[in-house]
Amino acid sequence: MKDYKEAQKRTDVSIGESVKIIRELQELSQNELSSLTGIPQSTLSAIEHDKIKLGVERAKVLARALKCHPAVLVFPGWDVDHEIAA
Fold it and tell me: What is residue 83's predicted lDDT score, i.e. its pLDDT?
């Protein structure tokens, strides 16, 4: 393990960007995600562009559709080691 080097964080990702990245990784359009969640496409666009807040309930709905934990969407850059030290 002495050759192990922790990866360095390269960029911050906003909540909206995390939603978009995960959606695109699953090859879903906003319209397809809208159909899966019942969230209007225009609202998804606004979330992805950080124009409106995601909110807890929408995060749960999106997480179910995107098959991920809501924390992945809501806390994309959370550094647990930094939080423990604070």
Answer: 57
